[in-house]
Amino acid sequence: MKPKSIKMKSWLFLSLVGITIIIIILGSIPVRLAIARYRFPQPQAILTLGGGRDREEFTANLAQTHPNLLIWVSTGSPNSVVRQIFREAGIAETRFYLDRRAVDTVTNFTSLVKDFQKHQIKHLYLITSDFHMSRARAIAFFVLGSHGITFTSISLPSKELPESRLVVMRDACRALLWMMTGYTGASFKVK
């Protein structure tokens, strides 16, 4: 055989192996989500994606009716505002975590997934605005789903148009990149 032919066959073989691994990993996510939802049919925590006081106020109201759920607010209003909202709703500070590590929607999830694992959370409420929910769900599918954490989404009505499919696909690809490499791609995010 010619060396060029051997290189081509090796490249083809490695490509097929890589594609097979990706398909197996992606195929396992729906299974992991189904298992988590079966084992934990009710949410165990709340994750609110920052972006408006209305989300935090909604979360405080939801937390009043679910007194056993822990709450995470990821990069939202200033800490003093969020604390005031929860204090006025009668939610103890020991129930909620204000996380400021996220710089965008992808890192809302990637910065918190280990915290959820540490607290053995397998099902959570995902709260954001309706225009933002498609992107949040796509990212959650990869980031949370790859860790066997399912979610029940609750979207708040807004007057904004839904985000474009391009933005949703971009961030879904970034979530997939994070799954494969641990890198979020936040530094090359285009607005």
Q: What does this entry look like structurally?
A:
The chain has 191 residues and is of the alpha/beta class. It has a single domain (28-188), classed as HUPs (Rossmann fold), CATH 3.40.50.620. The protein has seven helices and five strands; from the N terminus they run αβαβαβααβαβα. It has helices at residues 3-39, 53-65, 79-88, 105-110, 113-118, 133-143, 165-181; strands at 45-49, 70-74, 96-99, 123-129, 150-156. Strands 3-2-1-4-5 form a five-stranded parallel β-sheet, sandwiched between helices. The longest helix is centred in the first third of the chain and has 37 residues, at 3-39.
Ordered list of secondary-structure elements with their pairings:
Elements: H1 3-39, E1 45-49, H2 53-65, E2 70-74, H3 79-88, E3 96-99, H4 105-110, H5 113-118, E4 123-129, H6 133-143, E5 150-156, H7 165-181
